[in-house]
Amino acid sequence: MKVLSGLNLKEIEQITDELGATKFRARQIHNWIYLKSVKEIDEMTDLSLKFREELKKVAVVTDIKIKVKQVSSDGTIKYLLEFPDGECVETVLMRFDNRANLTACVSSQVGCAVNCSFCATGKRGFIRNLTYKEIIEQVLTIQRDTGLKVTNVVFMGQGEPLLNLDNVLKAMEIFNENFQIGARRLTVSTSGIIPQIRKLADLDMQSTLALSLHAPNHDIRLKLMPIEAKYNMEDLHKALKYYVDKTGRRITIEYLLIKDLNDTIDSAKQLAHYLKDIKCNINLIPYNPTEKNDYKRPSNNAIMKFKSLMEQSGKKVTVRLERGADIDAACGQLRGKVDAS
Ligand code: SAH
Ligand code: SF4
């Protein structure tokens, strides 16, 4: 059985050719999959009944299953999706009520090898890469389930996208061409894989690069992210500069705020100094407590104080809105719960 989701027009044409149908049929199927997000071949109503029956003998729309779906009071929807091999990943749909944007937060791997001390995904270790089809299937599943069109995609679910770069780049190309999502509405978040950041710079990527920095200096970062031992902040700084010079694009710096660990005045000063000559926006992420460690979320007061200190450095600073706090929508948390039950 062929799975239609994830196929490009040429690949769909191969199927219609084999069935002795015209290329126009392939175009119709392509529209039903990517723009109208149907769940079943039977819903492709501009194909004849007879042709639909023939198509059903060789193809299905998808082979992915929604294992768990949680809807938050703020409209965030979190899915645990299951692939045919039984592996699961999380995908989140976020809507911000003042905008028409619908942002899908997708996973790029099952598990993650980077093993950051604050992250539930890392705890499970690396299981496998997702194929580009499995990445785009996450967005198609959201569209099929909600009947809505996703407008933005962020690679901020499970996994380290830059350690699965070929599949991530291919998925981005398909989001761009088949889903008609502009490059600037795609964001790749990384823990800082330096050679791959340089590669993206050389490719002149026009999508947004988000860097999970999370620390103002080497010692604190090493405590939070073991990757700092391999790719340290000093070399990272050079790679970020190279990226900005090559692409002309502004980077998003993600900074997890953890009480008494990296939220002090001293940390803010060091962070401002580190970012002084890097064209970036700063996104502060209040730590979302998981059961497996002792880190705590700073008070709102401490968060606002840190924000205003960073603003004094002349950068644009935002605090990540908490989405779906009532449904465990932070990285890796739903998956952890299901495993435990
Ligand atoms: N591996 C990539 C992409 C995953 S993004 C990266 O780390 O950038 C996942 C985001 O969720 C990261 O910015 C990570 O720092 C954040 N995150 C992980 N655990 C979290 C927690 N408990 N609370 C808040 N944010 C968390
Ligand atoms: Fe992996 Fe990102 Fe979690 Fe770190 S924060 S373990 S890089 S998914």
Distinctive features:
14 strands, elongated, binds iron/sulfur cluster, 341 residues, alpha/beta, ten-stranded mixed β-sheet, binds S-adenosyl-L-homocysteine, single chain, disordered C terminus
Notes on the structure:
The protein has 341 residues and is an alpha/beta fold. It is built from eleven helices and 14 strands. The strands form three sheets. A ten-stranded mixed beta sheet has the order 3-4-5-6-9-10-11-12-13-14, covered by helices on one side. A two-stranded parallel sheet has the order 1-2. Helix 4 crosses helix 5 (165-177) and helix 9 runs parallel beside helix 10. It binds S-adenosyl-L-homocysteine and iron/sulfur cluster. Iron/sulfur cluster binds next to loops.
Helix-strand layout with pairing:
Layout: E1 2-3, H1 9-18, H2 23-34, H3 49-58, E2 59-60, E3 65-71, E4 77-82, E5 88-95, E6 102-105, E7 109-111, E8 126-129, H4 132-146, E9 152-155, H5 165-177, E10 186-190, H6 194-202, E11 208-212, H7 218-224, H8 233-247, E12 251-257, H9 265-275, E13 280-286, H10 300-311, E14 316-319, H11 333-340
Parallel strand pairs: 1-2, 6-9, 9-10, 10-11, 11-12, 12-13, 13-14
Antiparallel strand pairs: 3-4, 4-5, 5-6, 7-8
Helix pairs in contact: 1-2, 4-5, 6-8, 9-10
The protein binds S-adenosyl-L-homocysteine and iron/sulfur cluster.
S-adenosyl-L-homocysteine binds next to strand 10 and strand 12.
